[in-house]
Amino acid sequence: MLVTVPQLLSGSQVAEFQAALGAAQWIDGKATAGYLSSRSKNNEQIPEDEPLAQRLGGLIQAELDQNQIFIAAALPLKVLPPIFNRYRGGQSYGAHIDGAVRPLAGSHHRVRTDLSATIFLSDPADYDGGELVIGAGEEEKQVKLPAGDMVLYGGGTVHHVRPVTRGIRLAAFFWVQSMVRDASRRDILFELDSTIQQLGHTGADHGACVRLAGVYHNLLRQWVDT
Predict the structure, then answer these.
(1) Is the separation of the CB atoms in 122 and 168 below 8 Å?
(2) In a shared domain, residues 218 and 126
(3) Which of 178, 197, 215 is the last residue of a domain?
(4) Which stretches of the chain score pLDDT less than 70?
(5) Where in the sequence is the domain holding 166, given as residue range(s)?
(6) pTM of this prediction?
(7) Same domain, yes or no, for 154 and 192?
(8) Which residues are CB-contacts of 198 (< 8 A; sequence separation ≥ 6)?
(9) From CA 65, how far away is CA 79, in angstroms rounded?
(10) What is d(CA 196, CA 190) in angstroms, rounded to the nearest whole number?
(11) H helix intervals, the chain
(12) Is-contact 143 173, C-beta < 8 A?
């Protein structure tokens, strides 16, 4: 799965984030990397316990809670607080796979990382490079979205960030534990939900749409784990 969520953050929200992050204190991104990832990770992050990170993360989570594309695609059970990173001066992140389980900072809880998400916070014209490359070989896809847009993809997918050769690339990233663990089932449900929504907007037969919605919810009942 690779789903783009356009304008998760509005233009005014992006400007607020950029101003706040421009005055933030940054640390070496290796602080949150595992053994293998730390060998290829070269970026900067804001500590997760920083009040600024928590405030901005809360704004993102509020938008996620009401974004229908995100909810339909992820079927979220748990969402880890967003982390903010910065790339500049040739910094990059080599090919890696995110850890399958992440701790919830400040608690004993753990979250399974079914899905990974990146929210772009810099305008693409303001930096060169910095593409998020998802997959490998023939499956490789390059992602460089407008500020405020988000990409959602499988947590077990190989990905990397290309060197930023000009300007600054700001982003937020986080992980999601879905109510539906199996990726292929999530894809089916998302495709079915999207089709139902499209048919509803075209004025298709109401009874047929209701029956199709019943299929969706019956599948969800079988597959969901809460």
Answers:
(1) yes
(2) no
(3) 178
(4) 33-35
(5) 2-178
(6) 0.94
(7) no
(8) none
(9) 10
(10) 10
(11) 11-22, 35-38, 51-64, 68-74, 183-201, 206-223
(12) no
